[in-house]
Amino acid sequence: MLEPGNNDELPPIPGKRYFTIGEVSELCAVKPHVLRYWEQEFPQLKPVKRRGNRRYYQRQDVLVIRQIRSLLYDEGFTIGGARQKLTGEEARSDTSQSQQIVRQLRVELEEILKILRR
Questions:
Q1: b/e burial code for range 63-94 (CB count within 10 A of at least 16 → b)
Q2: 116: closest CA among 57, 108, 74, 55?
Q3: pTM here?
Q4: Which of 6, 44, 57, 96 is the most buried (most CB within 10 A)?
Q5: CA distances to 51, 90, 97, 104 from 100, in Å
Q6: What's the rounded Cα separation, in Å, for the pair 21 and 31?
Q7: Sign of CA dihedral 26, 43, 90, 20
Protein backbone atom coordinates (compact mmCIF):
# COMPACT_ATOMS: atom_id res chain seq x y z
CA MET A 1 0.00 0.00 0.00
CA LEU A 2 1.07 3.60 0.34
CA GLU A 3 3.97 4.39 2.62
CA PRO A 4 3.12 7.08 5.18
CA GLY A 5 6.24 9.02 4.20
CA ASN A 6 4.88 9.71 0.73
CA ASN A 7 1.97 11.75 2.04
CA ASP A 8 3.50 13.88 4.79
CA GLU A 9 1.78 16.97 3.41
CA LEU A 10 -1.69 15.35 3.56
CA PRO A 11 -3.81 15.63 6.72
CA PRO A 12 -4.38 12.52 8.86
CA ILE A 13 -7.51 10.51 8.12
CA PRO A 14 -10.09 10.92 10.90
CA GLY A 15 -11.56 7.84 12.56
CA LYS A 16 -14.92 8.09 10.77
CA ARG A 17 -16.71 5.33 8.92
CA TYR A 18 -17.85 7.37 5.90
CA PHE A 19 -16.55 10.51 4.21
CA THR A 20 -18.28 12.82 1.73
CA ILE A 21 -16.63 13.67 -1.59
CA GLY A 22 -15.78 17.13 -0.21
CA GLU A 23 -14.03 15.64 2.82
CA VAL A 24 -12.09 13.18 0.67
CA SER A 25 -11.16 16.01 -1.65
CA GLU A 26 -9.56 17.87 1.27
CA LEU A 27 -7.97 14.74 2.78
CA CYS A 28 -6.33 13.79 -0.52
CA ALA A 29 -5.70 17.25 -2.04
CA VAL A 30 -7.65 16.32 -5.17
CA LYS A 31 -10.66 18.16 -6.59
CA PRO A 32 -14.07 16.42 -6.51
CA HIS A 33 -14.35 16.24 -10.31
CA VAL A 34 -11.02 14.39 -10.39
CA LEU A 35 -12.33 11.89 -7.83
CA ARG A 36 -15.42 11.26 -9.95
CA TYR A 37 -13.20 10.73 -13.01
CA TRP A 38 -10.93 8.32 -11.12
CA GLU A 39 -14.00 6.27 -10.15
CA GLN A 40 -14.52 5.60 -13.86
CA GLU A 41 -10.86 4.75 -14.47
CA PHE A 42 -10.01 2.64 -11.40
CA PRO A 43 -12.25 -0.33 -10.59
CA GLN A 44 -10.88 -0.34 -7.02
CA LEU A 45 -12.80 2.87 -6.30
CA LYS A 46 -16.41 2.07 -5.51
CA PRO A 47 -17.85 4.56 -3.03
CA VAL A 48 -21.22 3.77 -1.50
CA LYS A 49 -23.98 5.78 -3.18
CA ARG A 50 -27.03 6.80 -1.18
CA ARG A 51 -29.85 9.36 -1.35
CA GLY A 52 -29.71 11.28 -4.58
CA ASN A 53 -26.55 9.48 -5.76
CA ARG A 54 -24.44 11.09 -3.01
CA ARG A 55 -21.08 9.40 -2.65
CA TYR A 56 -19.79 8.14 0.68
CA TYR A 57 -16.21 6.93 0.78
CA GLN A 58 -14.81 4.54 3.38
CA ARG A 59 -11.34 4.68 4.91
CA GLN A 60 -10.06 2.05 2.45
CA ASP A 61 -11.26 4.22 -0.45
CA VAL A 62 -9.34 7.20 0.95
CA LEU A 63 -6.17 5.08 1.17
CA VAL A 64 -6.60 3.91 -2.43
CA ILE A 65 -7.15 7.50 -3.59
CA ARG A 66 -3.98 8.59 -1.81
CA GLN A 67 -2.11 5.75 -3.49
CA ILE A 68 -3.50 6.72 -6.91
CA ARG A 69 -2.57 10.35 -6.24
CA SER A 70 0.97 9.34 -5.34
CA LEU A 71 1.35 7.16 -8.44
CA LEU A 72 0.06 9.86 -10.78
CA TYR A 73 1.43 13.05 -9.25
CA ASP A 74 4.60 11.96 -7.40
CA GLU A 75 5.82 8.98 -9.42
CA GLY A 76 4.66 10.19 -12.85
CA PHE A 77 2.55 7.18 -13.85
CA THR A 78 -0.11 7.51 -16.53
CA ILE A 79 -3.70 6.55 -15.70
CA GLY A 80 -3.20 3.22 -17.50
CA GLY A 81 0.10 2.56 -15.76
CA ALA A 82 -1.32 3.36 -12.34
CA ARG A 83 -4.31 1.09 -13.05
CA GLN A 84 -1.96 -1.77 -13.99
CA LYS A 85 0.21 -1.25 -10.93
CA LEU A 86 -2.81 -1.25 -8.59
CA THR A 87 -4.27 -4.33 -10.27
CA GLY A 88 -0.93 -6.13 -9.99
CA GLU A 89 -0.61 -5.25 -6.31
CA GLU A 90 -4.16 -6.48 -5.73
CA ALA A 91 -3.38 -9.81 -7.39
CA ARG A 92 -0.20 -10.25 -5.32
CA SER A 93 -2.11 -9.37 -2.15
CA ASP A 94 -4.88 -11.86 -3.00
CA THR A 95 -2.31 -14.59 -3.67
CA SER A 96 -0.46 -14.01 -0.41
CA GLN A 97 -3.73 -13.94 1.54
CA SER A 98 -4.78 -17.22 -0.09
CA GLN A 99 -1.44 -18.80 0.78
CA GLN A 100 -1.76 -17.60 4.37
CA ILE A 101 -5.28 -19.06 4.64
CA VAL A 102 -4.10 -22.40 3.22
CA ARG A 103 -1.22 -22.51 5.74
CA GLN A 104 -3.57 -21.76 8.62
CA LEU A 105 -6.05 -24.43 7.47
CA ARG A 106 -3.24 -26.98 7.19
CA VAL A 107 -2.11 -26.27 10.76
CA GLU A 108 -5.68 -26.56 12.06
CA LEU A 109 -6.28 -29.81 10.15
CA GLU A 110 -3.05 -31.31 11.49
CA GLU A 111 -4.16 -30.43 15.03
CA ILE A 112 -7.55 -32.08 14.42
CA LEU A 113 -5.79 -35.16 13.05
CA LYS A 114 -3.64 -35.41 16.19
CA ILE A 115 -6.76 -35.21 18.35
CA LEU A 116 -8.51 -37.92 16.30
CA ARG A 117 -5.51 -40.28 16.53
CA ARG A 118 -5.50 -40.21 20.34
A1: ebbbbbbbbbeeeebeeeebbeebeeeeeeee
A2: 108
A3: 0.68
A4: 57
A5: 39, 15, 5, 6
A6: 9
A7: positive
pLDDT at residue 116 above 50?
A: yes
* Distance (Å, whole) CA 32 – CA 26: 9
15: pLDDT strictly greater than 60: yes
Q: Which amino acid is at 89?
A: E
The number of domains in the chain is 1
Residue 34 clears pLDDT 90, i.e. is over it: yes
Q: Are 56 and 50 spatial neighbours (Cβ–Cβ below 8 Å)?
A: yes
User: What is the structure's pLDDT at 4?
Assistant: 42
Tell me which residue range forms the domain holding 85: 4-117
Q: Give the chain's radius of gyration (CA, Å).
A: 19
Give residue-wise pLDDT tens across range 36-47. 999 999 998 999
Looking up residue 107, the CATH number of its domain turns out to be: 1.10.1660.10
